[in-house]
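Pipeline run #58 for the internal structure catalog. This entry was flagged by the ingest filter as a single-chain record with no existing model, so it goes straight to prediction. Upstream metadata was stripped on purpose; only the residue string is passed forward. Reviewer on rotation: M.T. Logging verbosity set to normal.
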Amino acid sequence: MLTFNQVDKYAKHHHILKGISLEIASGEAIGIVGPNGAGKSTFLKLAASVLFPDHGQIHFQGEPYIKSLKTLRQHIGYIPQNIALFEELSVKDQLTFWKKAAKKKGSRVFIDEMIHVLGLDQVMSKKVRELSGGWKRKVNVATGLLHDPDIILLDEPTAGMDLAAKHDLLKWLNQLHQHGKTILIISHDWNVINRLCNRILIFQDGQLRFDGRTEDVQAFNSTLREETDQELKKILAEQNL
């Protein structure tokens, strides 16, 4: 579905991503982890066609991104780390606004199910500014998925969520995965990764250091060197890996 071929990305003179090559098949659930500044969010923005490579190519269903942008963006739901909501609108009006703005429309059944599973029916009449950070996160996710996309890209969607909110979100994401959706999620919470994902990408200093099954991460950790991979070893140690 998505193919990265020797992709590089720069910001001014900083080499953010270095020679990234991988294939993402339809229906995969992929967790993306690594230290801050490793290139994770930039990778997700490239997958979402928010950014474009400086070198290398990205293909969607065999076609270069630049030739399939209109089709691609109808298939992708990208939820960035920053919450992008209108504070003075109610949750109901928020969802109505973004649904009308979307070129591709999700079915009424899909949207009603999402609202129910995420628990948003409890807060539909409230203004966004009245909500806690965790509720805002759930509304933010919902607005990004109103068009029922096939590829779901999430950057730290559970940040600031309590356990109940995480449960609701993971329940919905697991349902979507079971229905064949492709999911890529950045998270520092290994419980989130472990409950949803069957493949892990580990980034460090702009490089893809690991690409494999969740059960193989411990073996990868044992190959890391204390003098050069201290930060990455610390992250994995915090997750008992």
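catalog note: The beta strands are 2-11, 14-24, 29-33, 55-60, 63-64, 76-79, 151-155, 182-186, 199-204, 207-212.
catalog note: The longest helix spans residues 163-178.
status: ready for reviewer M.T.
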